[in-house]
Design brief:
By secondary structure, the protein is α+β, with helices and mostly antiparallel strands. The chain folds into two domains: 31 residues; 106 residues, Immunoglobulin-like (Sandwich), CATH 2.60.40.1080. It has a four-stranded antiparallel β-sheet with strand order 1-3-6-5, with no helix packed on it. Strands 2-8-7-4 form a four-stranded mixed β-sheet, with no helix packed on it. The termini are far apart.
Length: 138
């Protein structure tokens, strides 16, 4: 049997999860890959094909800070793992598929009790999102 203190903690945790879900469903907080301005996280190009030693530049849009990662670092490499732009180079001659994942932090604005320089009530909070693309090796 749970003690009164543990019961209170469990009840509080369930209430917090219920509140978070309700805010997500109502659109009060960001729960998907859309920022407050309505811009989605995206990668250009959205799909690509490369041969061995060929490179392609990938660009990220819709976030604040970016982190790139690969599903298989034995068949390709990235020029850098942070920043809005990176270059993918195929290093293996195989008919493989590389999945490139972009993770980003995004700023979501919401109203609050504070005011900004124009007198409008606003605040900003950071959310995270991710997007993947497939690069086909020829």
């Amino acid at each position: 049997m749970l003690s009164p203190m543990k019961t209170h903690r469990v009840s509080l945790a369930i209430s917090f999860v219920s509140l978070a879900l309700a805010l997500c469903l109502l659109g009060t907080v960001a729960c998907e890959t859309e920022s407050a301005s309505g811009n989605s996280l995206s990668i250009s190009p959205s799909e690509a094909s490369v041969a061995i030693d060929q490179s392609i530049t990938l660009k990220a849009y819709g976030g604040e800070t970016y982190f790139w990662s690969l599903s298989d670092e034995t068949i390709g490499r990235l020029s850098n793992k942070t920043g809005s732009t990176t270059t993918y180079t195929a290093t293996a001659d195989s008919e493989a598929e590389q999945i490139v994942t972009l993770s980003a932090s995004m700023v979501a604005s919401s109203s609050s009790n504070s005011t900004n320089d124009t007198g409008a009530a606003s605040s900003a909070s950071s959310t995270s999102a991710s997007k993947t693309i497939v690069i086909h090796h020829l």
